[in-house]
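task queued by scheduler; priority normal; single chain, no ligands, no partner chains; default sampling; output format set to structure tokens
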Amino acid sequence: MEEKKKKNIIKPLLWIFGVLFLLVIGAGIYAYKTVFEPIKLDETTFIFINNNTNFEDVVNILDTEVGLPNERIFRLLAERMNYPNMVRNGRYAIQNGMTMLDVIRLLRSGNQEPIRLTFNNVRTRETLAGRLSEPLMLDSLSLLNALNDVTIAESFGFNEDTFLAMFIPNTYEIFWNISVENLLNRMKREYDIFWNENRRNRAAAIGLSPLEVSILASIVEEECMFADEYSKVAGLYLNRLRRGMRLEADPTVKFALGDFELRRILFRHLEVDSPFNTYRNVGLPPGPIRVPSIQAIEATLSPTQHNYIFMCAKDDFSGRHAFAVTHAEHARNAARYHRALNERRIFQ
């Protein structure tokens, strides 16, 4: 009788334990599959974590941007791996097929994906600060303050007028969360790499230092609408420098006036009292009037050999120049251009 009772008790218990065992196994399989379930993405997704981002923000970003297979499991895994206390800023690439474990390991390691930073066609510090900071975590005002800091400029071997020459327009791989200090250090390294022995020798061959080449290249680039004129215009300005003539470059007057949109330079503009006004001062201005492109620098290092010392815009408004060897020839070219300006009623 007692054995029968025991059997009657054991059977349900075995059934219950069996069910519990299956539930545990099922839960384990479910958890395992969830933990290692690959994230499905059509393309690599980049998430950005800044200095103010906490763990809760990271979870929300991931859930929104990539879609976590299971947020609760992600939180448990992150807690076990101590990630909530190790949130690191940066730009991270979440790729198709990664698991939640992979994501946590990536974010915890700080192994971020660099961005491709490109800048060109920059005239002012304000533009440069905006162009550099836009794709970065940097605050543009902090960068601008650094660009305007004479002490910082001098620490890199430049001054207030020449600091822009340190920035060589190109495409660079840089981490999104780079600091202002590290960005400036990187730009200085790139400047030193750019001005290698070959380019320094070419600069010396035309009687200029690397910095002077950058200054002249900035004027050449502002003067020309078409790059195929760079070398020719550089040769003209070098001819004037060698003869001790003033450059008389209109773009330097625009820079001195702070008005790049001037379409007609008048005699009153030429009187602006500025070291950048090459109508009043002999030689190169004290610094570049824009961030010169590599193309303009290369053209200045390889100037066209000719005897031209005068030029003015063509009267067909093509954006090209009429070059002259003599003042008389130049006067005729200039008269045609001024007549065309008057006909179009362009008075300033």
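post-processing summary
- Residues 2-35 form the longest helix (34 residues).
- The two ends are 118 Å apart (CA to CA).
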